[in-house]
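RESIDUES AND SHAPES:
===
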Amino acid sequence: RRGDTTYEGAIRASRSALATLTACATLAACSFAPTRPPEYLDPDTAASVTTVTTPIVFARSHQDVAANARQYITVAAVSVNRSGHFDYVLLVYLWSTVDPRLGAHRHPGQNIILLADDRAIRLIRDNSTLHQVGISTPLHAPEHMHGQPRIYRTDLETLKFLGQAKRMRLLLEGDEDPRPFDVWTDGRAALKQFASASSPIG
């Protein structure tokens, strides 16, 4: 009897351990499930708007202005769905925390060039307003930035490529300073996730 009791106890312990492992595995699966990009119905434009969880921020130092002075460019991908018609845009903010001379008004050029791996992707600034694109409120606007972002139309394949690029820099075409901007806050994983979630099923 004592042997039977020990055997039954071992069985119960094994079942308990298996249940614990199963629960942990389930919890782990839930914990590491990919988060879908934020999506909402714009109350003013009636468009379904999806954006990245984290934008890419580029930076360029300007020690001629101050020791830690930098210009920043925030680039956020957005998709706009109007009755099944999708538009893909990049919202681009030029800003600086140190000196207003390094902000958006310093740059005469309107177009940007993304240097991604072995490609140079030139994007032409769109003159549409945010509302015309389908977005009523600026998304991912930097705290120190006031005003509207620049808008650049793109496509899903380009966004997929950029999300997978190992190297990326940004040039302002026609800028008085020819130096490129380097990645400061890396949002490429979020861009890759955004592009994957935006892909048609099937």
Remarks:
- The first helix runs from residue 2 to 31.
- Confidence is low (pLDDT under 50) at residues 17-33.
- The helical segments are 2-31, 130-133, 156-164, 188-198.
